[in-house]
Specification:
By secondary structure, the chain is α/β, with parallel strands linked by helices. The chain folds into two domains: 151 residues, 3-Layer(bba) Sandwich (Glucose Oxidase, domain 1), CATH 3.50.30.40; 45 residues, no CATH class. It contains seven helices and twelve strands. Strands 1, 2, 3, 5, 7, 8, 11 and 12 form an eight-stranded mixed beta sheet that branches. The chain has a two-stranded parallel sheet with strand order 4-6. The protein is elongated, with a radius of gyration of 20 Å.
């Protein structure tokens, strides 16, 4: 548990992806931000959930006629029905948005099953309808063609690449208006704790900046007085994350 007695997932609901990126950079991890994906709208708070993955390879015409959707074992449909509650469905679409990764019916099913969100490095069809759902959804751009046009679902809940980032099942995804960060599963507790402290310090800094203080010696806190002032501020009751 974090110092605020919230679980790491609860704490990360209030932490920006920018802060997480800096925290992971300090630990030597420079490639945890999924490239090229954006939220379909920004009405949500943070998306937080463990990764459950779906992997596409290029489609081959004889294996991907429209009739394959009649197969109850089709892996795209399996992923939709098996992605656990509270997890994020992450789709490796090979950064190819020329055909959709999914559409509004499948995304609606995820929402109703209690899934925490969906991320693809491809595109969604029915993007306007998805944008109206109360459900965190990230893609690169809208795409009308069915996934079968270019994508063949080949693997579920295995390591994938999404937007040039390695994603392992169980890694924690955090999404906000900037995009999506991937936190390796074994670092989640540590990152949540450190990011809470970083966020408090950033709030302190912003208060000082808005009051007219120079950032020299303040951010980063190279002036020892900054560290002492932060301690006083933190204990004053004004700090809140």
């Amino acid at each position: 548990m974090t110092e605020s007695n919230r679980s790491p997932k609860e704490a990360l609901m209030h932490i920006s992806t920018a802060t997480i990126a800096t925290c992971l950079f300090k630990k030597g991890l420079k490639n945890q931000f999924i490239q090229g994906v954006v939220p379909l709208h920004s009405r949500h708070g943070n998306m937080v959930g463990e990764a459950y993955t779906l992997r596409y390879i290029p489609a081959r015409e004889d294996l991907n006629p429209i009739e394959v959707f009649r197969d109850p074992g089709h892996l795209q449909r399996v992923a939709i029905e098996q992605c656990p509650k509270g997890h994020v469905l992450v789709i490796d679409s090979r950064k190819n948005a020329r055909a959709a990764s999914a559409g509004s019916i499948l995304v609606s099913r995820l929402k109703l099953r209690g899934v925490a969100g969906i991320v693809t490095d491809g595109g969604f069809r029915d993007s306007g309808e998805i944008a109206e759902l109360d459900f965190p959804s990230y893609h690169t751009r809208p795409s009308a063609p069915t996934n079968l046009t270019l994508h063949h679902a080949i693997g579920v809940n295995e390591p994938i690449g999404c937007g040039d980032v390695p994603v392992f099942p169980g890694d924690l995804l955090v999404g906000d208006a900037d995009g999506v960060m991937v936190i390796p599963a074994h670092l989640v507790d540590e990152v949540a704790e450190e990011c809470l402290e970083m966020t408090l310090f950033e709030e302190f800094v912003m208060e000082k900046v808005n009051a007219g203080q120079s950032i020299i010696g303040l951010y980063p806190p190279t002036d020892p007085q900054t560290v002492e002032d932060f301690k006083v501020w933190k204990n004053s009751g004004r700090a809140e994350v």
